[in-house]
Design a protein that fits this description.
The protein is mainly α and 83 residues long. 58% of the residues lie in helices and 0% in strands. 0% of the residues are buried.
Amino acid sequence: MATTKLTLSMDEDTIHVAKRIASESNMSVSKLIKSLIKAFEREKIRNTEIPDWIKQLSVVSKPTADFDHKAEYGKHLEEKYGI
């Protein structure tokens, strides 16, 4: 992905903190800012409420304890491929 220059305005203290954190993390200030933005985006997605219509798509709330997934998948393959 191509990069583009961006100018940010910050007070001197914030700039010094950003440079120190970047140096301690062995990265540039640009990479530090990029990682913080990506982390913010991931956190925002994680905290998004799931709409009710998606919740209603669930067939059961808890899986059956004695359900054998491998055996059921084996049956599916037998039906599909006639093994």
